Amino acid sequence: QLQLQESGPGLVKPSETLSLTCTVSGGSISSSSYYWGWIRQPPGKGLEWIGSIYYSGSTYYNPSLKSRVTISVDTSKNQFSLKLSSVTAADTAVYYCARITIFGGGHYGMDVWGQGTTVTVSS
Amino acid sequence: DIQMTQSPSSLSASVGDRVTITCRASQGISNYLAWFQQKPGKAPKSLIYAASSLQSGVPSKFSGSGSGTDFTLTISSLQPEDFATYYCQQYNSYPHTFGQGTRLEIK
User: Fold this and answer.
1) CA B100, A103, B20, B83 torsion: positive or negative?
2) Residue A107 has pLDDT above 90, yes or no
3) A103 to B55: CB separation less than 8 angstroms, yes or no
4) Number of Cβ within a 10 Å radius of residue B100
5) Mean per-residue pLDDT for A95-100?
6) Which residues pair with B23 in a beta bridge?
């Protein structure tokens, strides 16, 4: 059974870079049937799509974050990562990683999620 | 960006009821729409993709419909475990935006 697990610092100082890793177990990140994505949720608020990556390295970012975000994949470790630079308090959120299954006709399903990790931006 | 607007923002219902949540896109998205359920402190769970296709393992009490700009999620015969927050998400174009959520509460 595929599982995703986020890891990284729970506290980041303002202006620094937030770095998180999602480890995929029970399946291969190199499958052509999936994308891999990051989503966040500020305290008490809704979901925000951050971006996604294909195993080949193709990336898609939310334009609202594009200048600060980098998503990368390490197929040798079966992991993908998120870096968000120049963070502020507004970046405080629960960060989720997810598998995005590619169905026919251009349809996707964000069908497996990590448990989420809380990141607080504070000095 | 495509804006997704859900209504209502919150909804009270009783066990056994049938409820419908609406999601409207700011421009046409064909049927490139997904629905998620989220319980407090938990990750979202995928319910539906392609506006009306159930994810594997999701009970048939959940159904989705719509195309273009207007979509609905219907939950029949509400059970205690169905009380949660529901989100729609469009994936017609990047960024893949979510609705603001609909909180379904027990009456």
Assistant:
1) negative
2) no
3) no
4) 17
5) 97
6) B6, B71
